[in-house]
Amino acid sequence: MRKRKIKHVLLCLLAIVVALIWVFPIIYMIISSFKTETDVVVPGIIFSPTIENYRAVLSDTFFKYLGNSILITLGTVIITVLLAVPAGYGIVFTPLKNPNSVYFWFVSTTFLPAIAVIIPVYLIFQKAGLVDNPIALIILYCGAGVPLMIWLVTNFFKEIPTEVVEAASLDGCNRLQAFWKIMIPLVRNGIFSAALLVFIITWNEFFFAVTVTYTEAATLPVYMSKYMTQQGYFWGKMCATGTLICIIPIILGFFTQKSLVKGLTSGSVKG
Amino acid sequence: MSKPKINKKKDNSTRVLLPAVIFVAAVTQVPFVVTIIFSFLKWNVKRPDLGIKFNGLKNFVDILTSKNFYIVLKNTLVIIVVCLILCTVFAILFGELFNRKFPGGYFFRTLFVMPYFAMDSVVGIVWKTLLLNPSMGLNYYICKFFGIQPIDFFGKHSLITVMILIIWQWAPFFFLIIIAGLQNIPDDVTESAKIDGANGIKRLVSIDIPIIKKHIVTAMTLGLINILKVFGLVYVTTQGGPGVSSANLPYLTYRTIFYDWSVGKAAAIAVITVVITLFITQKFFNATNKDE
């Protein structure tokens, strides 16, 4: 018994070590963001912390990109929810001839690589004057977000117990009432976590951002990628920017991880 | 799917699906069909004087006879196979490791999955500069400590570097799904195996893995789809180089369209990429569903 206890403690310590090693690059970035530009190139934890990098980084330019990211991400999430939730409901609760094939059609669009659509879309945006316009990114992100959201939300709708729906219709609820008053409260948490996932993916998305925007509508990933070339040697400021950008998805990820797993696995694992 | 239908009479409620179907078709399927058409054209956007001509199968022939394409194809396959296997192995091992209760356990688990939620362009640049840079990064200091030459992560080993970063970012995603499966294993199953004298490795192979097989397949399927699409990590770290030694198919397509502005050729690479993606996914589905 004692041997087992020691083993348990050792394995717990090992788990902590693994977690710390894995997250080390991110922790190192956060630590470095508080170092001066001269301290930052030398690894070490003895330094006098400074917030100078953050003061320098929080410029008008940063806020412009931040504003773009927030506008585009929120726009995408709202439109995605408005399109995907009715569709998820439709797949489960309306008399479709072949609900499964509609469902798999949506799921299969998430397999399509971005490069398979970007060429004509880019040329159309160019003709329409939408390159470097937030609308272009919102359209593309919704194209990616809606199928993913339908994938997750359909599974949540399927989990609504049949009795609840029957009871609602016996009580004289019409379809819209049943949807709003009975189903939405039941799947609300699922919708919320799926929306968070769409938020995180959209916030972090790089390929579309770097292809259809340049400066005016560019988002934070594009801003960050400029550190690759122009300011490549201001590591302190780079880390401060990186930390600010990553905080939001990491915090959201913290809250969404459980329901994310539930949404992604409930269809395929049980089915 | 046998859910009761409310109010079956004159039911036109399927209309609720229309906006999503139309939108998704317009943004994903229609452009893909257009891409297929483009792949038969000779068209350089930056040279409107040359016009747009029908090019037959020449774009495909050009690509399938170029040496670079096969290097990139090989890179893509190597990335997929190595990353899928290692992500799965890490996720199972760490899943077993974290599937125990201890103070702060959930906190450390969350630390472990952080890389998945962090922006790939941010972490890519951090890895490239602070950690792996051979003249100023941690790489230099660690190698100096051991008295060896700093490792050239962005020259000879660039493909390995890209794979390290992908595994670092995606293993946490595999882990999230696999540990959900491990947590579902009833305690008495594990206990009775222990009483029967099965040691850790034996329990893992003969009990845990068969029980969580579906979780493993789900993690691998989603991982496969997403790792085939990896772009940002390549873009901010190696830019596919040196040459095309660390480029994957999405990166090659990007370079063909946005550096060469050759629409037809880029479209042809995109079409080939989709065909290869479908082929790999199909093979993977067949392999994983065979014994069910």
Number of helices of chain A: 11
Query: What's the architecture of chain B in CATH terms?
Result: Orthogonal Bundle
Largest sheet of chain B: 2 strands, antiparallel
Structural class of chain B: mainly alpha
CATH H-tier superfamily of chain B = MetI-like
Describe this structure in words.
The complex is a heterodimer of chains A (271) and B (292). With 271 residues, chain A is mainly α. Chain A has helices spanning 2-32, 52-57, 60-93, 99-109, 115-127, 134-158, 162-170, 175-204, 207-212, 220-225, 235-270. Chain A has a single domain (60-232, 247-270), classed as Orthogonal Bundle (MetI-like fold), CATH 1.10.3720. In chain A, 76% of the residues lie in helices and 0% in strands. In chain A, helix 3 runs antiparallel to helix 8 (175-204), helix 4 (99-109) packs across helix 6 and helix 6 (134-158) packs across helix 8. The model of chain A has no long low-confidence stretch (mean pLDDT 88). Chain B is an all-alpha fold and 292 residues long. Chain B has 13 helices and two strands, in the order αββαααααααααααα. Chain B has helices at residues 18-38, 58-64, 67-98, 105-117, 120-131, 138-145, 158-184, 187-195, 200-211, 213-228, 232-237, 249-258, 263-289; strands at 41-42, 53-54. The model of chain B is unreliable at 5-9 (pLDDT under 50). The chains are: A mainly alpha (271), B mainly alpha (292).
